[in-house]
């Protein structure tokens, strides 16, 4: 005969042990909450918080985020990725802020054979065994830069100088400009670089101006992206100035001030969501994002970086639905494999920055619908035709 004590102990055990099929989906998120790219990393974190507020579970399974700060250090990005996978046993990785950091994290993810959603643009990396493993939400840099070059060509500009970061992001921007400009018969006549931690770019700006370009393109982002803008303004530059999606930032606008007026940037549709036609499938999601962001963070979004991580969350949710439908359970190797396969079969998923369709041959998943041109006017982004 079973005693009352045994029955009570059994009942307590049933309460303590999760029921079958109720394991959390663990999401390992790395971002730069400190260091030189924190002006990107903090918004990235707020975007993930908005995603959690928007969708907190998938098919009855709770999504649980484990977040680590890489302090803007690529070595820490890779180390955090390994910790999340090997110690925390996460099912998927999302991260991080900055191209060098994200590249280091992606390399670690591929080695560990775990799916990852990159929220900063990275150059192609070898897919690894059983891969590919990594998709990204930021538009491919060549697609964005092509919008700039098309605008230059329409204005009859023949030469351009480049001033950008001396890192992987700067390389992406410069290489994309060189490729598109050559096809448009526009010459890149200066390639000036600076470190994100630099406090002055006077020498680089003077050399760029000495080349007498028809236009200047900026290859910096966030807070340090304002340095050449201010230096050019101080030296009376009045020519066409082109930016990039990394300048869609409240910190950039605050530092650059009136010197930013007139800069033309390629960016995602979320930047001018209310200016898009209602028929655009991105408009509703972009406006929903703003509501979710405010709910999660107590303030409206004022940057573009948070929307990339929010889109990463949408991609995860969409893939997780299909991965769970296979019968694989979170926490298992089978679920990771199903999640990876689901990522690369994503089709026409509307986000804030584009409409995503990933395949093993296309880790970007977006087309021209993911690009608009905006012009900065007194701290606002005006949609250009």
From TrEMBL:
It comes from the Bacteria. Coiled coil: none annotated. CDD domains: PBP1_ABC_RPA1789-like. Pfam families: Peripla_BP_6. Residues 25-367 form the Leucine-binding protein domain. GO terms for biological process: amino acid transport. InterPro entries: BCAA_transport, Leu-bd, Peripla_BP_I. The keyword Signal applies. Gene3D superfamilies: 3.40.50.2300. Residues 1-23 form the signal peptide. Belongs to the leucine-binding protein family. This is ABC transporter substrate-binding protein. It comes from Bradyrhizobium uaiense.
